[in-house]
Amino acid sequence: xxxxxxxxxxxxTPNFDPCTICGMPMLANKCKIxxxxxxxxxxxxxx
Length: 47
Hints:
Number of helices: 1
Low-confidence stretches: none
Helix content: 10-25%
Largest sheet: 3 strands, antiparallel
Mean pLDDT: 77
Shape: globular
Order of helices and strands: HEEE
Structural class: alpha+beta
Strand content: 15-25%
Radius of gyration: 10 Å
Oligomer: single chain
Number of strands: 3
């Protein structure tokens, strides 16, 4: 789980990608994208 303070900092970044499930910031690692809040996962082929 990501804490709210860290999530707010991520929201300030220009490349913020919101989670389609919970709306929290998602972290990208190459082609894998993960929401640390709810655990939703996707990759670049899911666009």
